What we know:
The complex is a heterodimer.
Chain A: H1 3-18, H2 31-50, H3 52-56, H4 65-90, H5 96-104, H6 122-139, H7 148-176, H8 180-199, H9 211-216, H10 224-242, E1 252-254, E2 259-261, H11 267-277, H12 281-294, H13 296-317
Antiparallel strand pairs in A: 1-2
Chain B: E1 7-13, E2 20-27, H1 31-42, E3 50-55, H2 67-71
Antiparallel strand pairs in B: 1-2, 1-3
Bound molecules: fe (ii) ion (FE2) (3 copies).
One fe (ii) ion is lined by residues 78, 132, 161, 164 of chain A.
Amino acid sequence: MSEAQIKNLEEMFEQRIANDEKIEPKDWMPEKYRKTHIRQISQHAHSEIIGMLPEGNWISRAPSLRRKVALLAKVQDEAGHGLYLYSACETLGISRDELYEQLHSGKAKYSSIFNYPTITWADIGAIGWLVDGAAIINQVPLCNTSYGPYARAMIRVCKEESFHQRQGYEIMMTLAKGTPEQKEMAQDALNRWWWPSMMMFGPTDDMSTHTEQSMKWKLKRKTNDELRQQFVDQTVPQADLLGLKMPDSDLKWNEEKGRYDFGEIDWDEFWQVVKGHGPCNKERMAARVNAWEEGEWVRDAAMEYAKKQEAKKLNKAV
Amino acid sequence: MEKNWPLWEVFVRSKNGLEHRHFGSLHAADAEMALENARDVYTRRSEGVSIWVVESKHITASNPENNGELFEPAQDKVYRHPTFYTLPDEVKHM
Lengths: 318, 94
Ligand SMILES: [Fe+2]
Ligand SMILES: [Fe+2]
Ligand SMILES: [Fe+2]
């Protein structure tokens, strides 16, 4: 194809997206569109998979059977989210093996929030409430994104997230209304998870690089700062209801603007964790790689069994 | 030995009376495992009453580049639609 032809195809492509048409796997697409989507969708898939680790830490120690079945179901959902997203990503012509390879070698990123430890039961409440809460705000606009398989995966994901957030908030509620020690535990979890949750929306708009292209392709519909503001505005009243205090002395209602003003995010911490120096980066990767490697003989055995069964069938037919 | 589990496409009937619809895909060693995995991945909240799985390599798909020759011929065959035929208003039930 000549350069002029490609240019023409690209223009038609952008026009289709602008007209709210969806792009499907076999459609022609610019290489940059394909690469950007592989990066974003796989990063999202990896986050769902690694996201199971901090919560998995508490499944065996959940305080009641009710809490345990809920947490188990939530963690299983996250595995499902990872699988929907991996399968959407594979439609772009990359194999599951390559995707795992990128995760395990550290070439691909996952959401930094999962590099923080879950040291008390209240952390499970805080994660459901804040981390899933922030994820929902990030994800809902993606149900309308331009790449069909991604949009369809996100619709399924979003349907399932609201239970995650509610179960988290219920845990916080129970603790906040419990003994002084329990309330303190809830407050401590909020103190530790609030700022990392705020970081989930990414760098501030003036620092964020590829927003314009992402907006065009509907990978983004609002800017990082707009989404973060939405998160603050909807979460602060929820904290008030719990009788817990946000760990931000600059946080106050701005009557004039009709929204909350809030303090400065520690971006040094953010970049430290992104670069691999968070409290649990190494632990998470080690757990993931270990699970993959230790599972190898099971995967091989299943494949061998499938082949034998197939051969048996053929023999019978002869 | 071929190491990787093959890819399967999953189709789910959400309730009797409706057709099976494509839900997504997954990896599994064989058809039986594909069905079990499909149950866990795609129907955790009673989304289905029946599942089909088919190994992705068995699906032949049309190429969007040929959409012109494949689908455009239908566009000028308006006589396949009831509104093509002019009838007086007095004719009822037609
Ligand atoms: Fe999720
Ligand atoms: Fe998510
Ligand atoms: Fe979730």
